[in-house]
Amino acid sequence: MKFRPSNISTVIIVDKGKGSTKTLQVKTKHINRLKHYAAGIMVVIALLSGIIIYLDTQNSRQEQENDLLQAQLSKLKSTIPAVPAAQSQVKAQPQQSKAETYIQSIESKLTFINNYLKKRGLKGFSIKSIGGGDSKAAENKLSDDEKYSLYDEYLSRLERAVAFTPMGYPRVSSLTSYFGYRSDPFDGGHAEFHPGIDFRGQYGDAARCTANGKVVSAGWMGGYGNCVRIAHANGYETLYGHLSHIEVREGQQVTAGQVIGKVGSTGRSTGTHLHYEVRKNGKAINPISFLSLNN
Ligand SMILES: [Zn+2]
After folding, report:
1. At a CB cut-off of 8 Å and minimum separation 6, what does 292 contact?
2. Mean pLDDT over residues 42-62, rounded?
3. 175-291: CATH number
4. Strand, helix or coil at 204?
5. How much distance in Å is there from the Cα of 255 to the middle of ligand 1?
6. How far apart are the CA of 163 and the centre of ligand 1, in A?
7. Rounded to the nearest whole angstrom, what is the distance from the C-alpha of residue 195 to the centroid of ligand 1?
8. Rounded average pLDDT over 181-200
């Protein structure tokens, strides 16, 4: 068979191990076709490799991003949501018990002041427990508003009790004569009952009332000379004697600390001083226990 040289290609196969060669006569168009196939396969392989490399880098980038997001997420989880939850749990409990502690403290102080005033001859008032401690039943019954309103009422009562109870000095000076029996300053041989306390003072010094009240008499009163009597709450009355001048009139409302007259030596007096009496239900009692809160 005769081939036209242009149509035929010779393929030489060399076997290096045996040192032999073989020649093969192939149609050139087949060789060309093979070349085309090979080129096509190479292109496809290159494309696939490109795609694989691209996807691989995309994938690893995605993985890196995922790792980063996961780390951020766990960071957020461990900080932001955890902390407020813990805080609210920690806070809620002590606030309740703190409020309860304050309520108990307020109650015990109210009770103390109330008992103190009772000890000094005031009627006082009953304080029912409205706060924490062993008063769970009462606590549950009362709303916060009701509790506060009850405390407000207690404090108002105490305020009135304190304001209308003789307390402190009608004038701040030393005492020259005490409550009780003493030798008569006009007749040394006889004992005399002194129903009040005498305060040292200069002529014209201010004499002040020791509690809120109402003037029941203001004028000359026998041995007391110029004298002011003031009625307070709970059957208390105070009396200021031997005044040189009277600054109030009968029926007038006065407040604690108000000047009611000037120190003098009117009436049965041996010298300038202020005679001060505290009376309970009309009977003179020792004013010494009303001078300071420690008695
Ligand atoms: Zn006196």
Report:
1. 168
2. 87
3. 2.70.70.10
4. coil
5. 23
6. 25
7. 7
8. 84
CA 94 – CA 86 distance, rounded (Å): 13
CA–centroid distance, residue 243 to ligand 1 (Å): 12
The CA 185 to ligand 1 mean position distance, Å, reads 10
**Distances from the Cα of 180 to the Cαs of 16, 60, 136, 183, in angstroms?**
148, 106, 51, 10
- Give distance in angstroms: CA of 293 to centre of ligand 1: 23
Give DSSP secondary structure letters for 101-114. Answer: HHHHHHHHHHHHHH
User: Is 122 in a helix, a strand, or coil?
Assistant: coil
Which amino acid makes up residue 4? Answer: R
CA 276 / ligand 1 centre spacing (Å): 7
* pTM for the full predicted model: 0.57
- Domain limits of the chain? 5-61, 100-163, 175-291
The residue type of 278 is V
The whole-number pLDDT of residue 295 equals 47
